[in-house]
Amino acid sequence: MALDLASLLGRKNPPLIGLDISSFDIKLVELSEGSNKAFRLERYASEPLPKGAVLDGNIENIEQVSDTIRKLLKKSGTSAKNVALAMPASAVITKKIFLPMTLSDQALEVQVESEASQYIPFSMDEVSLDFCVIGPAANQEDVEVMLAASRKEKVEDRVAVAEAAGLQSKVMDIESYAARAAIQRLIEKQANEGRDQIYAMFQIGAKRTYIYIMLNGEVVYEREQQFGGSQLTQDIVRNYGLSQEEAEVKKKNGDLPDSYEMELLEPFLENAALEVTRAIQFFFTSTPYTRVDQIFLTGGCAVVTGLVDIVAERTKISTAVVSPFKGMELASGVSEKALRNDAPAYTVACGLALRRFG
């Protein structure tokens, strides 16, 4: 299965569910079309993975991962069989290139493969490659083309676990692009109310933070940093002798010893705020821009108690935790109360589920 960038740029996709396979769990989101063209959240659920089943984005045990997907499908109650999956950004090479507008479709494909070979440090027969024409370049003589490539075996592993669980893989996306798709509709809606506002999104996952900065609907800056919520979870595991799963549950529920806040939480929050502040400063020094008007936090780590407040305090920028489901209708089986705390962790899965719609 090739990487599919078509869904990023508006081509219609068949009905499907979004599955976000991380190192610690798998998350599922299913959306439908509600009233007045609104989206409707039909269901969401997650299931923990056995330790070591997925390491650094690589599937190490296909049987364990496919078994976890089967459990998740049963838990969620979905009957959908089509699925959108995603690769970690670190496993995908993406590149924007410019090619003559006069090329035929066939000539364009040949030229893209030729260009791709310059950027990919593997033999082309070991690679899954896809591309999509974004639109005319500024000079009006070329077209801007986005290409994406990943090791074929890594793509095939994800397809294999889905198929072993009885699903059909329809889209292979990139995690960071899926997260962007989920949040971009919210930013664009807000941007319509205030032109020329600069919005910075920090998707803070378990091990990585993806940063996107947008102006008038365009991404003007993006970056990945090696920082995430698993650092806090591992500290809890070590300090209190808990399993990974126990630590995640107790962190989420606030069910930890009195010493937790001072010994573990406060240092983690300081470190997180420092990472955000550094990222903003790097944006200023590496681009012509000198301000950010709003910071949005999403990802599983976004709801850690005190994070939004310390980021706002350290950066002096208005900061909010954002749900990818904001403005969506909720099916009767979805708890609005539970969703408030869960939602930011489902940003990638939501972005994948949105591939159902053109």
UniProtKB/TrEMBL annotation:
Gene3D superfamilies: 3.30.1490.300, 3.30.420.40. Residues 16-183 form the SHS2 domain. CDD domains: ASKHA_NBD_PilM. Pfam families: PilM_2. One of its GO terms (biological process) is cell division. It comes from the Bacteria. InterPro entries: ATPase_NBD, FtsA/MreB, PilM, SHS2_FtsA. PANTHER family: CELL DIVISION PROTEIN FTSA-RELATED, ETHANOLAMINE UTILIZATION PROTEIN EUTJ. NCBIfam families: pilM. This is Pilus assembly protein PilM.
